[in-house]
Amino acid sequence: VEEGSRLVQEVLETTPNMMCLMNTEIDQFNYLNREFCEFFGMQSDELIHLCPTFFRGRLYPNDRNIFTDHEKKITSADDSTVVESDFRIVNHQGIWRWVGWRSIVFQRNRDGQPKLVLHVGQDITTLKETEEKLRFLSIHDQLTGLYNRLYFEEEMSRLDRGRIFPISTIMTDVDNLKEMNDTYGHAQGDELLKLISGILRSSFRAEDVVARIGGDEFAALLPGTDESTAQKIITRIEGKIDAHNTRNPQFKLSLSIGFETSTRGESLTDALQKADTKMYASKMQKREMQNSYK
Fold first, then answer.
1. pLDDT one-digit tens code per residue, 19-78
2. Which whole-number Å values give the CA distances from 259 to 104, 196, 227, 237, 276, in the listed order?
């Protein structure tokens, strides 16, 4: 029995996961393994003295409700149920780490309520960061960093079903990109697209959806934006383009822009098409003016 007990103790102390046994009746730690203590940079007796209140106080503020819900679920869980949650908590170095937290009822009191609960935590920060990178890549254009067409269409569908109106839709097309690629090469054309995306990104609000939806086409959804405000944003974009061209006469930018404002009940798909038609008309007008000067 003693040998078996020592073996169990060794396994608990050498596991790479955080482990603790908590008495929920008195809100007290009964046991903490080495990994748990090293995470917080304290000895076991120090942490036991501080109680689980210390642990809760180290939670990321926006994740505290996750842990509160986790504890509530334990009270109604049966003996075979593993309660699972992911949250952030600060370690002894002051660094926020993602932890995958798994809990199971280890012992109950006479009334059948959880008394001892076993918690096992695993640092999943790298996994979370990888998931976030993959999510970012799935909804963003890799060249410009703006949203991609798929995300733009999903947001258009979501806003179409929502209640935030009016919504203005802006379509933008880069003028003479083909000529730029033919003359200076595609690498220079890519730099031009990045430059324009930066101007667009800085011209809109955080809640606006700005995307590259084609090779040289950009679009934006502006929830809660009327015609007057949309026109001001377009004027802002044009002002930044003019400022760039004044500073860089050898590398001028030109955009054709069209927009449409939708009210409740009007389709954003139709608005996008109307904005595209206006944008194309603007592009044709520029070409006619350029030809008249030749």
1. 999 999 999 999 999 999 999 999 999 999 998 999 999 999 999 999 999 999 999 999
2. 56, 18, 9, 13, 8
Selecting among 173, 208, 216, 276, the annotated active-site residue is 216
For residue 6, what pLDDT is reported? 63
Helical H segments across 140-185, by residue range: 149-161, 177-184
By the 10 Å C-beta count (0-12 exposed, 13-18 middle, 19+ buried), 185 is classed as: exposed
| Main-chain phi, psi angles of 168, to 5 degrees | -100, 140
Lowest-confidence segment of 114-118, 191-195, 198-202, 283-287 by average pLDDT: 283-287
Which DSSP string corresponds to 6-44?
HHHHHHHHH-SSEEEEEETTTTEEEEE-HHHHHHHT--H
Closest by Cα among 31, 59, 26 to 44: 31
- Name residue, tokens 């919504």: 167
Whether residue 106 contacts residue 117, with contact meaning beta carbons closer than 8 Å, is answered with yes
pTM exceeds 0.85 for this model: no
Structure tokens at 129: 């960061």
Torsion sign over Cα 97, 13, 51, 24: positive
Alpha-carbon distances, residue 61 vs 56, 58, 64, 96, 158 (angstroms): 10, 9, 6, 11, 29
**Residue given tokens 């940079």 in the structure block:** 41
Checking if the pLDDT of 187 tops 90, the result is no
CA distances from 3 to 6, 7, 13, 19, 126 (A): 5, 6, 15, 21, 37
Contact 222, 233 (CB under 8 A): yes
Active-site residue flag, 79: no
Task: Quote the CA–CA distance of 184 and 115 in Å, as a whole number.
Answer: 73
Q: What 3-state class would DSSP assign to 257?
A: strand
Q: Is the pLDDT of residue 200 over 80?
A: yes
Name which of 243, 239, 277, 241 is nearest 258 in CA terms: 277
